[in-house]
Design brief:
globular, alpha+beta
């Protein structure tokens, strides 16, 4: 965490947090960005899908997805996606199935999820720099490979 505290992020407007979100350093980076007024894009590889959330410096914190001492981060995130879908009456059945399947282990890290996430990141960064609208967390982007959502 000392490395994060020592970071000078002056002049940076946007950052991408593409860590595994499996330790406190990932969220310490987010806090450092918040302190310095930097918008953070969270890119998460869900195996055959990608999840992205854009966190405003003074917005709802992405770290709220993770329940301290609970599931693997991706399972916690899957549950968040599922609950969001249920609330808006847009079921995300493949996520529910993945949570059941991976509740004992973490979601796989497949290359396709990383490619989807990278493409979304590039698009979101372009929209932010051009002043176009983007969804801010707790809204998010979810893109599965060849699946309806």
């Amino acid at each position: 965490m000392e490395d994060v505290d020592a970071c000078d992020l002056s002049g940076i407007r946007y950052a991408v947090n593409a860590t595994l979100h499996d330790n406190e350093a990932s969220f310490a980076f987010d806090e450092k960005c918040k302190e310095q007024g930097i918008t953070v894009i969270h890119a998460v590889n869900l195996g055959k899908a990608a999840f992205l959330a854009v966190e405003k410096p003074k917005g709802y914190p992405f770290s709220e997805v993770v329940k301290k001492g609970s599931d693997d981060f991706r399972c916690s995130l899957g549950k968040y996606i599922s609950q969001y879908g249920m609330f808006w009456q847009i079921p995300v059945l493949w996520v529910d199935e993945a949570i059941r399947h991976y509740s004992e282990e973490s979601f796989p890290q497949l290359g396709i999820g990383a490619y989807i996430a990278a493409g979304y990141c590039a698009n979101i960064l372009a929209n932010l720099t051009e002043g176009k609208d983007v969804k801010y967390f707790p809204k998010f982007y979810l893109s599965p490979l060849l699946e309806e959502i």
